[in-house]
Amino acid sequence: MVSGPDRFVVAIVGSGPAGLSAAAHAAQLGLAHVLIEKTDHLSDTIYKYQKGKHVMATPSNLVLRSDLDFDAGSREAILATWDRQIADGAVNVRYNAEVTAITGEKGDFTILLKGGDAIRAQNVVLAIGTQGNPNLLRIPGGDLPLVQYQLDDPGEYFDEHITVVGSGDAGIENALGLAADPAQRNVVTILNRGTDFARAKGANVKLLQEAENEGRVIVMRETSPAEVRLGENGGELVLETRDGQQVIACDRIIARTGSRPPRDFVEKIGVEFGSADPGAFPVLSPTFETTKPGIFVIGALAGYPLIKHCMNQGFDVIEFLNGNTGLKPADQPILEEKFAPLPGRRSVEEWLDVIGSNVAIFQDMSPLQLRELLLDSQPRAFAAGEVVFTRNEPGSSMFAIVEGSVVVEVNPADPSLTVPIGQGSIFGEVGLISGRPRGSTVRAAEPLVVVELSRTAALKLIATVPSAARAVNRIALERQLLQMFGSGLTPNDVAPLVEAAEVMEVRAGQKVISEGGDDRDIYVIRRGSMVVEKDIGGKPIFLSYLPAGSYFGEMAVIDGSRRTATVKAAIKSEVVRIPGDLFTALLDARPALRQRALAEMAHRRELNAFVEARKESFGSAADLYAETAQFLVDNGIGEATDVLLIDETLCVGCDNCEKACADSHEGLSRLDREAGRSYAHLHVPTSCRHCEHPHCMADCPPNAIQRGPDGEVFIADTCIGCGNCQRNCPYGVIRMDPVPPKKPGLLAWMLLGLGPGPGEASYSWRKKKAAKQGLEQTKLAVKCDMCAGIDGGPACVRACPTGAAIRVSPEGFLSVTQEGGLD
After folding, report:
1. Which of 36, 38, 468, 677 gives the lowest tally of CB atoms within 10 Å of its CB?
2. Per-residue pLDDT, 625
3. Tell me, what CATH number does 392's domain have?
4. Same domain, 123 and 152
């Protein structure tokens, strides 16, 4: 222990990057200081990084302010540099000193240590981070010994099935470390609840994609752990996937699901947090001072987890304490450049105040968090009448209205029909959530200032700021209800429903409504899809399919009857539960909506009556109907918007469909007629389903996979052949195909005998020519695009001489199924 004065100017608690930087600068300025560390070494968070971990120095465009050096490099090299510089700088460090309480007021704080010692200081800087408070795996079996929350040395594990839970930077780096050495023979799996890696750095995501491409890491998207158990042959992990439960072998689970601030300890000091959310951060001034005067918070506890940010804050907070209150943050020049094109000549601080005050999703963020968000976002200004984006335009960014308002053109045929969106709200959230092109044209109704959040920035905001996630969800639900119910409803009409709504995640096959039940709620399908079944003679009979955007359960609410059918998830889905009494009140207030609901209910009752009337004569026909419908669900009905089906009673095997597809797409066929699955007379060839929420869009580095104006999912010319889409597609309908060579011209054929002759080169010639020229290495992703831009519609259907090939929407599946067994 290094001795010091009776009362230090500043006591710094925690020796992570923020605390080290603060202590180093205090030493450089000659301030009486002490750095308090509860372990016997510096920077415990980085010390606990896995051995050999490569530490990044991001953001690259941010200047480093610190008396300590920091460049991207190995964990060991960085720690060695800091140890040396702390010693050379005569920093006053007290090791093995765990703080148990902090009492007193500004100018005279007492810091109590475990064991009874006390330290007095005029000011206290908390740089304690959050890593000591990890989020636990709260599932059955989550407390078994095979679950751990730290990975010290990836090289210690051999011949194990290891699952990493968590897809942030820590989880990705752990997975990569465990899979780095093939000689260890580990089977490494990483789980991601979503399809995007919103919490991770782009460089880490790229490395994970490369490891996935090479087969070193198994990446499971839209998957979460459900149960850990010990089986006869060792550990097992039960997973909830998009298609239902799956069990994998698991010798070890490394849970890297984030951490939360040590709130109880900090609040006892007298520091207030921004909200009651468990993940909220302390309220801070621009100088990092908390609501308790003299107590400052920096680093991860302030909401800034990146090392370079932390080190800059450590430097800055000591400057503030030393009287340099005019110091601007290191990101000031970057933000000044971003705000320069905006009207009004406001300063960065003025813009931050306006943005934070005016926009609902930003209101619980501190100025520090808002600064970090804006580094990855773009403020923009538009004149009155100027188009922000147009209908069917690709785009997945989200816009927050800082000043002004916009109008949304809801009818493409009549631009005068618009819906206003005012200051403080957001738009573009549909493209963010679904990946679809812009659904409407949006114009500035008056001079407009917005913040455009990139998809990455928006997803990170939703993942890390609970209040922002709630606000986005609320707005998205309100707009979905208005669009779904229609009948001239206003936001005020649906406000009670939105406030009472509960978002529920439903696993594949899980029942939302059970036949015979007397519950009275209604449900809106937010993501995924549902199937409706009725019990006939003890067997479930498929009635209908409900895609995202549908609602169900209103029949029992309107007439008070019991549930007449069972509704269950076709795939992993999200539904919104709305109390039935509130829906009834809305119907009472809006007669037009009641008439519409009654008409839809009458149609469903007709189907139920039809099934009931024929229940005595169903027999094998009913079985075939139910089994065929289930087959279609299992093969894509739950997600599809357009599927190619082949009636095998009509198909003669001529392959005209496949040849026509190749001839329409530069020799690259988009379907494989013989591949795929069959049931009864129906065959589903290997061809794109054009899913409602395409899995292939996830992790496409050049954003080459997009939706066209007719809903087709297509691959643009920017494809780089990485293969991510092929791996992400659950139906195996995307393949990496060699780029076919150009056909020699007519003269080359006539004079030199090159090429296949006049006319379109055959698919087989192009494939053989590609092989001879060694072009297999130049590959592109290939999938059906529904012959977008080609007159006459899909070539496969047009080329079928017997009418065996048809393309159908989900609604069309039902008639096909009935033709196969019910009628």
Report:
1. 677
2. 53
3. 2.60.120.10
4. no
Same domain, 182 and 276: no
DSSP string, 19-38: HHHHHHHHHHHT--EEEE-S
Task: Name beta bridge partners: 109.
Answer: 104, 121
Q: Which residue range is the domain that position 544 belongs to?
A: 496-615
Residue 568 lies in a domain: yes
| Structure tokens that stand for 520 in this block | 């009275």
Q: Do residues 461 and 521 both lie within one domain?
A: no
CATH of residue 302: 3.50.50.60
Whether omega before 140 lies within 30 degrees of 0, making that bond cis, reads no
Are β-strands 217-221 and 187-192 bridged in parallel, bridged antiparallel, or unpaired? parallel
Query: pTM higher than 0.85, yes or no?
Result: no
Helix (H, G, I), strand (E, B), or coil: what is residue 673?
Answer: strand
Residue 544 within a domain = yes
**Average pLDDT score, the chain:** 83
Residues 6+ apart with CB under 8 A from 347: none
245 and 273 assigned to the same domain: no
- Do 357 and 465 lie in one domain? The reply is yes
Per-residue pLDDT reduced to its tens digit, 2-58: 445 678 999 999 999 999 999 999 999 999 999 999 999 999 888 888 888 888 888
Q: What is the 8-class DSSP label of residue 631?
A: H
138 part of a folded domain: no
Check whether residue 248 and residue 266 sit in a common domain. no
Q: Residue written as tokens 């450590």? A: 314
Poorest-confidence range of 330-334, 439-443, 659-663, 677-681?
A: 677-681
Q: What is the pLDDT at residue 419?
A: 85
CB 509 within 8 A of CB 638: no
Last residue of a domain, one of 230, 255, 280: 255
Give the position of tokens 């509130």: 582
End-to-end Cα separation, the chain, in angstroms: 88
Answer whether residue 292 shows pLDDT above 50: yes
Phi, psi of 245 (to 5 degrees): -80, 150
Residues 532-543 as b or e (16 or more Cβ within 10 Å = b)? bbbebeeebbbb
C-alpha separations of 252 from 171, 215, 787 in Å: 14, 20, 48
Distance CA 121, CA 104 (A): 10
Looking at the structure, tell me whether residues 525 and 602 fall in a common domain.
Answer: yes
For β-strands 187-192 and 161-165, DSSP reports them as parallel
Q: With helix as H, strand as E and coil as C, how does 306-364 read?
A: CHHHHHHHHHHHHHHHCCCCCCCCCCHHHHHHHHCCCCCCCCHHHHHHHHHHHCHHHCC
For position 776, what pLDDT does the model report? 47
Residue of 124, 200, 123 whose CA lies nearest to 166: 200
Residue 457 and residue 505 in one domain? no
Q: How many CA atoms lie within 13 A of 584 on its CB side?
A: 11
Q: Is the pLDDT of residue 757 over 70?
A: no
Number of domains in the chain: 5
Q: Which two tokens stand for residue 151?
A: 């990975």
Average pLDDT over residues 661-667: 75
| 768 belongs to a structural domain | no
- State the burial class of residue 327 (Cβ atoms within 10 Å of its Cβ: 0-12, 13-18, 19+): middle
How far apart (Å, rounded) are the C-alpha atoms in residues 331 and 333? 6
Read off the DSSP letter of residue 200: S
Domain boundary among the residues 595, 615, 635 is at: 615
CA distance 785 to 435: 16
